[in-house]
Amino acid sequence: MTTKTILYIEDDPASRLLVERALKHAGYRMLIAERGLEGMDIARREGPDLILTDINLPDMSGREISTRLRSDERFENTPIVALTAQSFDEYRHLAMAAGINGYLTKPIDIETLPEKIEYYLKGGRDDIDSEVLTKAQSKYAQEVVHRLETRIRELEDINTTLRRLDNMKDSFIQLTAHELRTPLTLVYGYSRLIEDNDAVKALLATNPDVAVLVTGLIESIERMQSIIDEILTISRIVTNQIDLSVGPTNLRRLIEKVIAEYEDAIQQRGLTLHFEDQDWPEKMQADSDLLQLTFSNLISNAIKYTPDGGHIYLSATPNEQNIKICVRDTGIGIDAKEQQNIFERFHTVHDPQLHSTSKTAFCGGGLGLGLAICKGIVEAHNGKIWVESAGQDHEKFPGSKFFLELPIMAAKERVVLS
Ligand code: ADP
Fold it and tell me: For ligand 1, atom 2, which residue shows the shortest CA distance?
């Protein structure tokens, strides 16, 4: 005789231990779950010969488990037996209305339990008068709908709380970034004054070590400023406070400016940037500063995620209304399952251990804000941004293509994001 498998769903440890022992002793293979959802997952995965379940479970009732499993044809004929402390007839009828075959009550009679299980395994079921069953079915349907309504209300309350906390967090981030920016601007100003001071200039000219220290100091402050600006921009985007200042924009010139920004890094990393400059519109309506930030982020990413010696291609295909831009690199690429997520704020794919404040070090990922900012800006222009890549591979370097589609003339002055 093949060993039969029984799935027992029970949140009370004492009952679990008792029943598991007794049924194992009687020769059954036992699967155990402490919660309803877990039990259903095990049932679907293992296909047990019988399911024994408590009625009152923390997440869902044994009746609901039965109703849910009966809707799956694999469990149409699987014996489902309740083992519960609810001994009133009314509960037994409700259980049978939910498709439960047998109803056993606690305290558990360990001596007779295996026999009863055997009875249900052989197709046995508890009797119930058909009229009583019909009444119980309608009561059970009402109970399910009532519970559903209660759950929806609970979830709505939780959702309201979560939104409130999320708003609080956004305000906190925004406020902190503002507070940090003010003293940092002062520090930056002072550092510039130091650099311009005649005595310091003389010292810098004669002492290269001091010159390295001062340059390092100013570069670090600039980097901190750009991180704070990134945080403020994303805060404005998520709190619908992004104001486009739309005006005539020479996109070709704008891209050239961004390229110039990264020229040194491109050279240091041995990368080649291919810029097909003929198709870029010179007259478009857009927010130049925000578009510059978008391309700066995309090109910085292309540099960061492409190994030394790789290539970056920038191309544009205009039509009457839109311009389609592609920033392609020969870098590590992005897995399909991450291609949506990377546009969410604070989402990074890399190992956080590799986090770096450099905008150009290979794989030195940042805060995970760059692409969220790009998306916010592009959508504020009524445009689209997406990525295509054959997956991530640190040896074969499949590369990534970031596409942007932007209206040439139709951007709105004030955009409220949904
Ligand atoms: P980060 O500041 O971490 O670069 P982004 O929002 O710009 O944040 O990017 C999010 C994540 O998307 C990055 O952490 C990286 O894993 C992935 N990513 C972005 N651009 C590229 C690219 N060109 N190639 C490969 N991965 C990329």
Answer: 366
